[in-house]
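Try this one yourself first.
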């Protein structure tokens, strides 16, 4: 049984059918590193800090956000508010948005 065959969680509330399709397309391309809701890695060297999955620097849990696409935890520097994903997934989204223009 794969979780990914289910419908996407309604949280993102896509504005149009197109953005839903884009999201589905992205889900196929992006490797999921963590399940949604899975906690970030604890920093073994410091108390109450967690690792950013992208740059591997420690942060407090409130400084990290989980990417809705790949599930990685990203710090502020590795986060793209524009898409509400990590910067790695944001790069893939941009490519798709350009491609989808025709
Ligand atoms: Zn980072
Ligand atoms: Zn991501």
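Now uncover the answer:
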């Amino acid at each position: 049984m794969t979780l990914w065959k289910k419908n996407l969680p309604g949280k993102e509330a896509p504005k149009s059918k197109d953005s839903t399709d884009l999201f589905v397309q992205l889900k196929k391309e992006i490797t999921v590193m963590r399940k949604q809701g899975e906690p970030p890695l604890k920093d073994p060297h410091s108390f109450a800090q967690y690792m950013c999955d992208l740059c591997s620097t420690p942060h407090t849990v409130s400084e990290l956000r989980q990417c809705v696409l790949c599930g990685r935890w990203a710090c502020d520097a590795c986060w793209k508010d524009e898409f509400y994903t990590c910067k790695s997934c944001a790069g893939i989204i941009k490519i798709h948005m350009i491609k989808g223009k025709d």
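Discussion: The chain has a mean pLDDT of 85. The pocket of zinc ion (ligand 1) is lined by residues 52, 54-55, 57, 74-75, 77-78 (CB under 6 Å).
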